[in-house]
Amino acid sequence: MAEEKYKIVVFGAFGAGKSTLIQTLDPQAKHIEAECAGGSTTIALDYGRVQIGEKRVYLYGTPGQERFEFAREIIGKGMDGAILLVDATSPVDKFVVHLSTSIIAARIPYVVLLNKCDAIGAQPDAAKAHFAGTETQTVSAKDRRGARDALERFIGTLRPHSIDKTA
Ligand SMILES: Nc1nc2c(ncn2[C@@H]2O[C@H](COP(=O)(O)OP(=O)(O)OP(=O)(O)O)[C@@H](O)[C@H]2O)c(=O)[nH]1
Ligand SMILES: [Mg+2]
After folding, report:
1. Do 87 and 64 form a contact (C-beta atoms < 8 A)?
2. What does the pLDDT average to over 26-43?
C-alpha cells in the first residue's frame, strides 16, 4: 500500500505556541527564528515530519506576526488541512478571528487546538465560544502525548494528499 502524505499548516497568533507544538511532535523539526523582546519569534517557517502508521505528515508552521501575511499565503499553498492554534491564556482577538475566517474561506479542513491548557489562567471554554460549530480540542504544545493524540485524531478525518490520488 502506498504511503499517504499530508501537508498540514499550523496557524496562530504571535506566541500561540506553533513552533513549540511542531518541535514537540518532531524533535528534529527545523525553524527559522529571530530574537525579539522576551524570546524568539518565527520569521519564515517551521518544518517537521511525523509518521502515523502509513501516513506521513508534513507539518509547516507559519509566523504569527501580522506583517508576515505573505509568508502565511505561500506556506499555505496546497495544504490538506490546517491547525489553528489558539493561546487559551489570552483573549481571542481580531487577528485570530481573521486567521479562522481565512481558513474557512479557503475551504480547508481544520481543527482549533486550544493551547497552553497546562498554564494557570488558561480559559479554554472562553476561547472555545469563539469557534462554535468547529472541532476544538484542548492541548499543551509541551505535552507530546496530548499533542500527538490531537494530531492523529485530526489526520484521521482527512483525505490524503492529491499527488497520491493518481496512484
Ligand atoms: N505553559 C505553556 N507555555 C507554552 C506552551 N506552548 C508554548 N508555550 C510558550 O509560549 C512561548 C511562545 O511559544 P512559540 O512556540 O515560540 O510560539 P509561536 O506561535 O511559534 O510564536 P511566533 O513564531 O512568534 O508566532 C514560548 O515561551 C513557549 O515556551 C504550552 O502549551 N504551555
Ligand atoms: Mg514560531
Report:
1. no
2. 88
> Could you give all domains of the chain from N- to C-terminal order, each with its CATH number?
4-156 (3.40.50.300)
**For position 165, what pLDDT does the model report?**
45
**Residue 53 zone, left/alpha/beta (φ > 0; ψ -120 to 50; rest):** left
**Distance between CA 45 and CA 74 in Å, rounded?**
10
Say if residue 6's pLDDT is above 60.
Answer: yes
Q: What is the mean pLDDT of residues 101-130?
A: 96
The number of the ligand nearest the C-alpha atom of 85 reads 1
DSSP per-residue codes, 26-90:
-TT-EEEEEEETTEEEEEEEEEEEEEETTEEEEEEEPP-SGGGHHHHHHHHTT-SEEEEEEETTS
- Which residue ranges have their beta carbon within 6 Å of ligand 1? 12, 14-20, 39, 41-42, 63-64, 115-116, 118-119, 140-142
- Residues 118, 159: Cα–Cα separation, whole Å: 31
Per-residue pLDDT of 73-100, as tens digits, reads: 999 999 999 999 999 999 999 999 999 9
From ligand 2's centre to the CA of 13, what distance in Å?
Answer: 9
